[in-house]
Fold:
Amino acid sequence: MKAADALVVHDDATPKDAASCFVNPLTALGMVGTMRMEGHTALAHTAAASNLGQMLVKICLKDGVELVNIVRNPAQVALLRGIGAKHVVDTSAPSFMEDLIAALSATGATIAFDAIGGGKLAGQILTAMEVAAVQKGGGAFSRYGSTTYKQVYIYGGLDTGPTELNRAFGMQWGLGGFLLTYFIQKVGPAEAAKLRQRVADELKTTFASHYTAEISLADVLRPEKLIAINKKSTGEKYLITPQ
Structure:
């Protein structure tokens, strides 16, 4: 590979420290970078208790960015609040939409990054953003909805079913895909180098990863290990140690 494609870490970083130092950290930084480039001031994130989601919480706290974290159960709410997250909403709660609207209203978030992909969540976020915008605007009714532009980027596929949109969010909205590779190409080599340097500098703090277990290459061939790895459960991350 080209030397320019490598992420150089500090001398005190171990292979274990650096094993997850590329995609998740740079994707989280790319979300904040996209928010800024597109003129938004706050953002929302689904599957927010993930390894990446926890990194994003730390980035936003450090950079003073308002963040709405969307999770799927009370345990994940507690997890994120434990690392300092202020706005956390639970999709399993009966009051989910009301809680989401309140959090979006409080933060002014008009861009979201969705790891789920399928189902109704992306549309629910756009709807909640629209309600928050209408409440904030207080202007005359328009059949076309508010003038506030709302954007959801899908970057994952935890739900592989169709993305369902009930278009209750006016005409100022967008739904697209987000991929780290394209973001890096867009910002260019100089900005990408700055982001990589930040990851290296904060590898053991903001971008630290924790693993459920370390397994060998032979373990990967065992059906029970494959099933465990494929679960994609929050807090269950495996490190493969080839030696």
Remarks:
- The mean pLDDT is 94.
